[in-house]
Specification:
The protein is built from 15 helices and 38 strands. The protein has 707 residues and is α+β, with helices and mostly antiparallel strands. Among the domains are: 219 residues, Beta-galactosidase, Chain A, domain 5, CATH 2.70.98.10; 86 residues, Sandwich (Maltose phosphorylase, domain 3). The strands form ten sheets. Strands 1, 6, 7, 8, 9, 11, 12, 13, 16 and 17 form a ten-stranded antiparallel beta sheet that branches. It holds the Pfam family MGH1-like_GH.
């Protein structure tokens, strides 16, 4: 089980424990917030240690270290005469969080005072009114409730004693005032222990007392279901000569699993990340985003998590607009309690999601060989296809953004975008491939024709007279900016010539674009550059990882590896093992709006390593695997273990190494035979090796020519 330990300043690191329904997280200096989605139970959680006479222990209120693992976090407290560990975790689908305290050394009569601010509220924008709290003597806890009795929370411990009392005078009756609960640890195997449960209920059939009991009585070992989930999520393993890169890759897989969240009313899906609520009852971005989910799905597919990828795609289709075929953009954890679509503008705001959805679904079907998924959802896929085609301009065959909608650029809304037009090329090619598998030759031919027409039109529309790519057009007809992520989209669509692509890639290495921690979203030399602006000069993990993958796919391995390795320190910067959303363009410091656990940053980092660094591509239906590694010059070996060639048929381990003037590849096939295509960097004119690989061990050797 991977773990990550941090020391000072522990209070200024974002620390979190993740479960399918429960979550605890935050910066220690602010206190943690505790959730059982979609209910916020409390915020401002912190501990204070007291002598028997009630006086605080000096210098004991802040942890000196914290160790995180996929199932939770353990904070350590130390002071003269005191040594305490605090384990915080959420378990499987239980709607709550458990805290276990173990006191290894303490003065006589030690008490632990738990400070918190009660919430009992739904994730924004839903809300519950009329809260109150009372002491539940039987449960030995604080019972938070509201008049209907539908929503309740219980903060309870068998070791609880003194506690806040209800106060109905006009100066102390506010529900949101800080509360406390004192615990007196009891003997437990040579130490003294106390256990605290934060439980809630929001659905018929749930009972807050039953949940609290289940949390309190659960064994110390992780829940078997949680262990199984982690094993599935980390079955594939990338091992390189760089220990820091290995750790970042392993934790990127953990981050993807920790983003999988289950909502009793909405279902299970990938959330966009986690960060502080900032008082808004929304631990950013702990709700569902369609586009973010697709970025994560690409990483799931690349790492062979086909079952989870299919579940995410099905979750996205679950809320497809039945009238238009449009895919959704944002879904709050509390949408099940609201008229979300009718009353809020967030659900069907982005037209680009449908285009990306078709492309990612085709990636999934190709890698997994899962034709069953396509057949089961074919009517919905056709509806998404029709929606995309409904936006196509008859004059040039490129999509337009309807009034009141937006595409990828939220900060500078355009009527059409190069990135959206490139996504249309990808979507049309994807639909052609999927139509082939479904035996619809006419649809396949139409989709290929649409893709080719769009590819040809992109150059005419988005290449300005100065020979630069522009991002798109405003509604008044004026051009969008030059040099942006759209430049890479021009390459991906096939609209850029090889010479133009080389010029774009060279610009990515320019000092006003490339920083030590990634690529600026806008060159520092641009007139409107702002290093602190969200999209006008800051450094995005997603964009930098995507650029690295594009460089690898273009055969520019040295430049790609150099860029990708600059992202490795992101995993150690704040939330251990997780990557921020966006950094300042002037220093390796999170941009002020950034989220410390941004799922798509981790997902794109992992996708780039698998599709670019290792050059892996599976064709599940035909049982074929491409391996085209492009490691940095200083790496003489690389291993990828647990690679799946399709959804069925076992796994294969690949161990590559460079020896003098030859490359050696050892394969250990734990499943059915497959066909391997091995492309080796340094042999640009040599044909790739194709070999049928049977079960067991196979060794292949290629002579190398120096790059």
């Amino acid at each position: 089980m991977p773990s990550w330990t941090v020391t000072a300043p522990v209070q200024e690191r974002f620390l979190a424990a993740h479960g399918l329904r429960g979550f605890a997280g935050g910066y220690g200096s602010d206190g943690l917030e505790l959730w059982s989605f979609p209910v916020q139970i409390a915020s401002g959680y912190r501990l204070e240690f007291l002598h028997g006479d009630g006086t605080p222990l000096a210098a004991a209120d802040a942890p000196v270290a914290a160790t995180l693992d996929p199932f939770g976090l353990t904070r350590s407290y130390a002071a003269p005469g005191l040594r305490v560990s605090e384990r915080i975790e959420a378990r499987d689908t239980l709607p709550g969080v458990r805290v276990r305290l173990r006191v290894e050394q303490a003065p006589p009569g030690l008490r632990v005072r738990v400070h918190l601010v009660p919430s009992l509220n739904l994730m924004w924008p839903a809300g519950i009114g009329g809260q109150e709290f009372a002491w539940d003597a039987a449960a030995r806890g604080l019972l938070l409730q509201e008049p209907s009795g539908r929503f309740r929370a219980l903060i309870a411990s068998p070791q609880a004693g003194a506690h806040s009392e209800p106060n109905n005078d006009r100066r102390g009756s506010a529900f949101g005032r800080p509360l406390f609960l004192e615990l007196t640890p009891t003997p437990c195997g040579g130490a003294r222990c106390a256990t605290l449960a934060f439980a809630s209920q929001s659905e018929p059939g749930e009972d807050v007392h039953d949940t609290a009991t289940a949390l309190l009585q659960a064994p110390e070992a992780p829940a078997p279901a949680d262990t199984a989930r982690l094993a599935q999520a980390t079955r594939l393993r990338i091992v390189t000569p760089d220990a820091q890169a290995n750790r970042a890759l392993r934790w990127a897989q953990v981050a993807l699993e920790q983003a999988w969240s289950c909502n009793a009313r909405l279902g299970c899906g990938m959330v966009a990340g986690y960060g502080p609520s900032h008082g808004a009852r929304r631990p950013q971005y702990a709700w569902y985003f369609g586009g973010d989910g697709l970025v994560s799905t690409r990483a799931l597919v690349a790492s062979g998590q086909f079952e989870r990828a299919a579940a995410q795609l099905a979750f996205e289709l679950r809320y497809q607009d039945p009238d238009t075929g449009m895919l959704w953009h944002e879904l709050s954890q509390s949408a099940g309690f609201l008229q979300w679509v009718r009353d809020y503008p967030h659900m069907y705001a982005h037209v680009d999601i449908a285009f990306d959805f078709l492309a990612v679904t085709a990636e999934y079907a190709h890698a997994s060989g899962d034709d069953t998924f396509l057949r089961a959802h074919w009517p919905q896929l056709l509806a998404a296809w029709r929606y995309c085609r409904s936006l196509i301009d008859a004059g040039d065959g490129l999509p337009r953004v309807p009034a009141g909608k937006m595409s990828g650029n939220e900060q500078d809304a355009l009527t059409d975008e190069l990135t959206l037009s490139a996504a249309w090329v990808d979507a049309a090619r994807a639909m052609a491939a999927m139509a082939d598998t479904q035996g619809d030759a006419a649809l396949a031919a139409q989709a290929r024709a649409d893709a080719e027409r769009a590819r040809a039109s992109i150059r005419a529309r988005y290449r300005d007279p100065a020979g630069r790519w522009i991002s798109g057009f405003h509604r008044d007809g004026s051009r969008g900016e030059s040099f942006s992520g759209a430049d890479l989209a021009a390459i991906g669509s096939g609209a850029a010539t090889p010479q133009e692509a080389a010029a774009i890639f060279a610009q990515l290495a320019a000092p006003d674009v490339l920083t030590d921690w990634g690529l600026r979203s806008k060159p520092a030399s641009a007139p409107d550059y702002d290093s602190e602006a969200y999209s006008r000069g800051s450094v995005w993990g997603l964009g930098s990882a995507a650029a690295a993958e594009a460089l690898w796919r273009a055969g520019r391995g040295a430049q790609a590896a150099d860029l990708w390795l600059r992202l490795v320190p992101w995993a150690a910067q704040d939330a251990p093992g997780h990557m921020h959303e966006v950094q300042s363009g002037a220093a390796f410091v999170p941009q002020r709006e950034s989220v410390p656990e941004q799922t798509w940053s981790s997902a794109a980092f992992l996708s780039a390593a698998l599709g670019g660094l290792a050059g892996l591509e599976a064709d599940g239906a035909r049982r074929r695997l491409t391996f085209a590694p492009q490691p940095p010059a200083g790496w003489d070996w690389l291993r990828v273990e647990g690679v799946r060639v399709g959804a069925n048929g076992g796994t294969v381990d690949l161990a590559w190494r460079r020896e003098a003037q030859r490359a050696v590849l050892d394969l250990d096939n734990h499943g059915e035979p497959f066909v391997l295509t091995w492309r080796q960097a340094g042999r640009p004119s040599a044909a790739p090796v194709e070999r049928r690989v049977g079960p067991g061990r196979t060794r292949l050797v290629l002579p190398l020519r120096e790059e």
